[in-house]
Amino acid sequence: MARRLAWLAAVVLAALLPVVGAAFAQASLPRVASNNLCTDQLLLALAEPSQILGLGPYARDAQRAWAADRATSHRILSGHAEDILVMKPDLVVAGRFTRRATREMLRAQGVRLEEFDAVRTIAEARAQILRMGRLIRREAVAERLVADIDAAVERARARAQASPVRVLPVQRRGWVTGSATLTSEMLATIGVVNVAAELGLRAGRFVSLEVIVAARPDVLLVTRDDERAEDQGRALLLHPALERTASRTRRVTIPERLTTCGGPMLIEALDLLAAEFERLGGARAATR
């Protein structure tokens, strides 16, 4: 009888160990607050939901936040230090240019604060994902996400090489994204010719309608695809001269929320580019 009880006890213990271990591991994960749009996105992609104490003021902004829908179940912070201090987080993550007074007060109160720079390259995005994974003890999730980004790069590169085009990223009022930006880096990584580089634009700046037309891009890369001109800035993109230069069928739309930050949203952005290049290649072949 004693042997049978010992055997049963061993079986029950063996069954419980993984559950207890998982619960212990989750309980030991750091509790984190974010005070920046881009660190919000990294946390939402990598952290266990129970780790996230609060997110930045713009986490639910669907125009700029890729994971705005995921943010609805989390507390939104004011951007000031006071509501962060009340929660007593193990770690606060923020942007390098997050409100200075907030960062200084958090440090003065002994809070661990980790700052992240704005991402300008895919390599920087990969590094930030891995760094956040280490900080919140979710390294395996971060490594899988980086591998997914690398795979998306290869998919987009294959499509771009099959349908080579000259692309000009342009936004309202003729703002052209320069070559030293995340959008341009993404195009360069997959082998697309960026007309902004041909124009000598390293940093983004406004250019005239005449300059855009004279550059004769094969494709315009825009952030919106609607036909509504709510002001003169938006009206420029709907000008008949641009329609003749690059009709709406030769415009690729990458929403702002996919390029505001560098991180998990790059997979969606790259796959969208791949699909659009395939569409453009098919349309060009059909007209031959």
Q: Tally the helices.
A: 12
Q: CATH class of the largest domain, please? A: Alpha Beta
Unreliable stretches covering 5 or more consecutive residues: 16-25
What best-fitting shape do the alpha-carbon axes yield?
globular
CATH architecture annotation of the largest domain: 3-Layer(aba) Sandwich
Cα end-to-end separation: 86 Å
Biggest sheet layout: 6 strands, mixed
Overall structural class, as computed from helix and strand content, comes to alpha/beta
Q: Give Rg in angstroms.
A: 24 Å
Tell me the helix content.
40-55%
Extended strand count:
10
* Relative strand content: 5-15%
The number of domains is: 2
CATH-defined superfamily of the largest domain: Nitrogenase molybdenum iron protein domain
Mean pLDDT metric: 84
CATH fold assignment of the largest domain: Rossmann fold
Commentary on this structure:
The chain has 288 residues and is of the alpha/beta class. The chain has helices at residues 2-27, 37-46, 81-87, 100-108, 122-135, 139-162, 182-189, 195-198, 209-215, 232-235, 240-245, 265-286, and strands spanning 32-34, 52-54, 91-95, 113-116, 166-171, 175-176, 193-194, 205-206, 219-222, 251-253. It has two domains: 28-117, Rossmann fold (3-Layer(aba) Sandwich), CATH 3.40.50.1980; 146-286, Rossmann fold, CATH 3.40.50.1980. Helix 3 runs parallel beside helix 4 (100-108) and helix 6 (139-162) packs parallel to helix 12 (265-286). The relative contact order is 0.12.
Secondary structure topology:
Layout: H1 2-27, E1 32-34, H2 37-46, E2 52-54, H3 81-87, E3 91-95, H4 100-108, E4 113-116, H5 122-135, H6 139-162, E5 166-171, E6 175-176, H7 182-189, E7 193-194, H8 195-198, E8 205-206, H9 209-215, E9 219-222, H10 232-235, H11 240-245, E10 251-253, H12 265-286
Parallel strand pairs: 1-2, 1-3, 3-4, 5-7, 5-9, 9-10
Antiparallel strand pairs: 5-6, 6-8
